[in-house]
Target: Transmembrane prolyl 4-hydroxylase
Amino acid sequence: LFPQVGHERKVQLVADRDHLIRTLSLKPLLFETPGFLTDEECRLIIHLAQMKGLQRSQILPTEEYEEAMGTMQLSQLDLFRLLDQNRDGRLQLREVLAQTRLGNGRWMTPESIQEMYSAIKADPDGDGVLSLQEFSSMDLRDFHKYMRSHKVETSELVRNSHHTWLYQGEGAHHVMRAIRQRVLRLTRLSPEIVELSEPLQVVRYGEGGHYHAHVDSGPVYPETICSHTKVVANESVPFETSCRYMTVLFYLNNVTGGGETVFPVADNRTYDEMSLIQGGVDLRDTRRHCDKGNLRVQPQQGTAVFWYNYLPDGQGWVGDVDEYSLHGGCLVTRGTKWIANNWINVDPSRARQALYQQEMARLAREGGADSQPEWALDRAYGDARVEL
Model:
């Protein structure tokens, strides 16, 4: 259907005109549609977001983080083995960099890791590599203490932006409803799936804003549950993730400088997490190395780009997360960047997704006209976090 990069086809998303869908990459399956939103619609979304009020996209959950680290039940040897991906008995800088969660919301660079090693005297010979002996003699409490005492600048965060959520269900602003209907036609998914997905997220990146490369959806293991279907899951599981089958991203303005969306490994022949960080270059770092990513999409007012975050399972449902969907927001060097995201939520458990849809339909029937499950949407996603 989409034989190659650059392939274009026309679709009718609104009554009076054709839209173009252009294939940007095959890994991940990524497309762009210029003029998906009109300039007026873009301005209205920004206006509604400003009226509602935006909040900082990332705060540092220091206490939660220490609690989580404390409950990990890992010995120092286990932790070393976990970090030592190539099993050579030495911890290279890039092996530590690969574990973004260790930074507690702070983006780690080779320099910041070496600075920490030096402060807690973890690397006596200063070569940036920790042997098992050096790692074992390190007191992890010193690491936590260092992370706690270090004042973090916004430029050091994984994500530097402000955002809010706009409801798109029944009774929402007519333009918000119209955009949701257009997304429905664009994605060709069932109305039940699209209507029960997250509200529209609107994001503002000021000058100096960025979002380091990440995937929009977390992997779903047996001990993980999807945020959107947890309301119908009986089982109690320790981890929750956002199950975002598709991302539809809208550019709401033209950006004066920077602010591209980068897909560092789009259409690479192979994917290897460790090869993202080589020779001091971290391809996930959107402040320093956006220019080295395989594909960059320039923000253009009204354009929508959309991609699939999961691979198919071969049986007509959602399979594993597509690691090639790794993407980020490049540093805004001049001006402000406004975008919006429509995430389409699908639970990799087909049975749980079906149960969720049935339950929402039942609530709608019982609740009468005002029965849209807004409680399951706006509230469930009010504090949604994107996996780092």
